[in-house]
Amino acid sequence: MPITVKRSYLNWKPVKHVVFKSDSLAEKIHTTGFSIFDGLSSEQLMKLKDLFNNEHSFDVKEGGMFYSMYSRDKEYRKRVHETIAEILKPTLEAHFKDYKNVVNAFVVKLPGEKSEFYVHQDTTAIDEFRFSPLSLWIPLHEITPKNGALAVIEKTHWFFSPYRGVSFGFPFKKINNTIKKYLKPVYMKAGEVMCFDNRIIHNSMANTSDQLRIAVICGIFPKEASFQTCYRASEENSPIEMYAHDDNYMMDYPHFFYNCTDRPHFGEKGKIENHLFPEMNAEEFEELCSLNGIDIVNELDGAEATTTNCQLIAEPNGVNRFEEADAEVAALLKSNAPKSKGFFSFLKRSS
Fold first, then answer.
1. Considering the domain boundaries, does residue 5 fall inside one?
2. What are the per-10-residue average pLDDT scores of the chain (351 residues)?
3. In a domain, 247, yes or no
4. Which pLDDT value is given to residue 338?
5. Distances (CA, A) of 98 to 18, 81, 94, 103, 224
6. Phi, psi for 168 (deg, rounded to 5)
7. Residue 44: CB partners within 8 Å, gap ≥ 6?
8. How far is it, in rounded angstroms, from Cα 27 to Cα 243?
9. Which residues sit opposite 134 in a β-bridge?
10. What is the CATH number of the domain that holds 247?
């Protein structure tokens, strides 16, 4: 069934993914936004668990989320990326063609009350007028209602904009209480692969178990696509600025956590877009869901609807190392002053 939308923003609509060997899988992702398939062998799972155990040591009592790509230790980041790539290669080769594997990372949800991750879409990373973004999410153990499942809303990659960045909020930021009614948790077996379009609305539930929830995230680009990110200044009516980056962007860029809402320090500034995608109200979102057969789920009724209940952890030892260049950020985080920079600013703007 074709997707019905209510707006025509810059005449944009999602482009069908070109990296799949299976046409039926490509069509499913294009239409619904995600699919799950059997992926990893027991040997691959064991290698990933060994890699994780050799590289990490956490002691964060209140919980939180850790992404290996946030670390300032670029050697660690590169080592994790390359080792995961080697382990996943048979799986990627089985499903994809003419692709490049641009990032691999661990995503860890530590048990505790500050482990829920907010409702969001992933940021723009390619020219979405020509290509569509794709990620794989692979849990290293069974995902249950207690340990932090991903929850998704199918087809929502059609509803919004090709421009998303950590420096500006989502067009649905004021209707999160409506959004969360439609979020459907996805429970998975260890080694299964969730293949999803980064633009579908999703979040991850709190980890209320007593164990780490460990997953691997894997980013797939068409071979000819290159990195592109978006930035928007905080002043009213500021345009969206596009920046082009080298293929090593995910390994070399230091600001995925620290000072992440600043204007990019790397990359070549390109196109500027003055026409902004307007905010969406609850009535329009619910009408879109009704038109496209997206049902209310209400499985996350008690979940946090804002961004305040997640503690982001940047370093693999659980310590966020604010260097001298980040003295202002460190001072803000350690005081009661407004948190005007870094990932905490992003959380505030997105709520």
1. no
2. 90 97 97 95 97 92 90 93 98 97 96 88 96 97 95 98 94 93 96 98 93 97 96 94 93 84 89 95 98 93 57 87 49 42 44 42
3. yes
4. 38
5. 8, 20, 12, 16, 8
6. -145, 155
7. 87, 88, 90, 91, 191
8. 30
9. 220
10. 2.60.120.620
User: What domain range includes position 257?
Assistant: 23-350
pLDDT at 301: 63
For residue range 199-231, what is the model confidence (pLDDT) as tens digits? 999 999 999 999 999 999 999 999 999 999 999
Residues 124/221, Cβ–Cβ less than 8 Å = no
DSSP category for residue 315: S
Residue 342 in any domain: the answer is yes
CA distance 105 to 342: 20
User: Which segments of 155-199 does DSSP mark as H helices, in order?
Assistant: 176-179
Q: How far apart are CA 210 and CA 61, in angstroms?
A: 11
Distance CA(274)–CA(214), nearest Å, equals 40
| Strand ranges of the sheet holding 192-196, from the earlier edge strand across to the other edge | 34-38, 192-196, 134-139, 213-222, 99-110, 64-67, 312-313
Q: Considering only CA atoms, which of 158, 197, 160 is closest in space to residue 175?
A: 160
Q: Give the largest CA-CA distance in the chain.
A: 55
Nearest-10 crossing angle of helices 327-334, 342-350: 60
Q: Which residues fall within 8 angstroms of residue 254, CB to CB, at 6 or more apart?
A: 72, 74, 265
State both tokens at 330.
């460190």
If one counts the domains in the chain, the total is 1
Backbone angles phi, psi at 251, to 5 degrees: -90, -30
What is the rounded distance in angstroms from the CA atom of residue 155 to the CA atom of residue 288?
10
3-state secondary structure at position 92? helix
DSSP 8-state secondary structure symbol assigned to residue 239: P
Write the CA distances from 342 to 70, 113, 255, 346, 349, integer angstroms: 11, 22, 8, 7, 11
Q: Give dist(CA 66, CA 112) in Å, integer.
A: 13
**Residues 116 and 205: beta-carbon distance below 8 Å:** yes
The C-alpha atoms of residue 144 and residue 205 are separated, in whole angstroms, by: 10
DSSP for residue 71: -
| 239 falls within a domain | yes
